[in-house]
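Extended Data, panel c. Modelled sequence:
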Amino acid sequence: MNALEARGFIDSVLRGALPPAHPLKRKDWAGLAFDRNCHEDLAPTSVWLALFSAHVKFNGDLVRLLHTDGEGRDKLESIAPNVEQLRSRLDDGLAFIANFFVFSPNENWLVRLDYDVTLFCGEVPLIKDVVINSGGLDAVRGAMVDDFYGGYERQAWGLDRYIERLLEPLRHMERA
């Protein structure tokens, strides 16, 4: 896969929309979203750990990282599926890039990190595994709500609907 093919994959999954608009094009995918400014690792570390564990279980080894360099060129690289490797890339300055993406070469999950939101999305079985290993659906939903409202009284921003639409493909988990 090259950077152009990676962009094609990303474009097949995501709309350019930002919250509260629903970002996913694929109806068979679920998502999790967090305020990147609330977390040292730009999302709860437990979710990264669960994602990388699910990646290894579903896909195998390396993951891809796509970002745009200072000259506007897309850079695609491979990293090990672990938080330490991600942190090392973030420490190299990637945390300050507006949009960068971490994804599976098998194209069954994707994480978009923009200035405000870290969006995890992927095929339902994989995201279900991430949710289960991150404390369950209620815990993940609660973390998402806490991030987006940060203790403020809920207002008509549409973020409740945003969160529920991302989680909608996982709704059967509540009955399990």
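The longest helix spans residues 45-58. This feature is highlighted in the accompanying rendering.
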